[in-house]
Design a protein that fits this description.
Elements: E1 17-21, E2 28-32, E3 35-42, H1 47-61, H2 65-68, E4 74-77, E5 83-87, E6 98-103, E7 114-117, E8 120-123, E9 138-143, H3 146-165
Antiparallel strand pairs: 1-2, 2-3, 3-5, 4-5, 6-9, 7-8
């Protein structure tokens, strides 16, 4: 099965959907059938896929090699933007805090948005950008440890429970 060229019809991508990869909140992610090095992101609203593709191809066309080195490679996006084929980047192996290079204009740098391939840690979700920050620059960033990430998630869950319980003293 061949991965469709960029801006092919949505129907050309549908047969690529393999086993699901858990974890996405706004998009569903699947292994690409017959291509273990690629995933397919499915987004009904298309916005996140289009944002990532625009960002990746802008960096590629403008030879922003520093940026390209720290984001997942995109193979193709469907004409509507519903389907995006990207490099498969499994979870970061080390449970410890890790320092990586990231584009300075990318927002939402939580641990789950990073993946690792052959020892290289890259962003696998870079659809959200910071307003007013110029593109093309890279800086160091500390990815939180698994323990800190879990603590923050638990704190968020606790706060949600408090605010949604109706037991607030006002």
């Amino acid at each position: 099965m061949t991965i469709p060229k960029n801006h092919s019809s949505d129907s050309d991508y549908e047969s690529l959907i393999g086993q699901p990869i858990p974890g996405g909140t706004s998009r569903s992610v699947y292994h690409v059938a017959g291509h273990s090095n690629w995933v397919i992101k499915v987004n009904e609203q298309c916005g996140a896929n289009k944002n990532e593709a625009d960002y990746y191809f802008d960096a590629l066309n403008n030879s922003r090699n520093d940026v390209l080195a720290c984001i997942g490679k995109i193979k193709s996006i469907s004409k509507s933007g519903k389907y995006l084929v990207m490099e498969y980047l499994p979870d970061v192996v080390s449970p410890d805090e890790v320092v990586v290079d990231v584009p300075t204009d990318i927002d939402d740098l939580k641990r789950s948005n990073f993946g690792e391939n052959k020892g290289s840690i890259k962003l696998r979700d870079y659809a959200m950008r910071k307003d007013g920050v110029p593109t093309g620059y890279v800086d160091k960033y500390k990815i939180e440890s698994v323990a800190i990430g879990n603590n923050l998630k638990n704190l968020g869950n606790d706060l949600d429970a408090i605010f949604n319980s109706g037991d607030l003293d006002t």
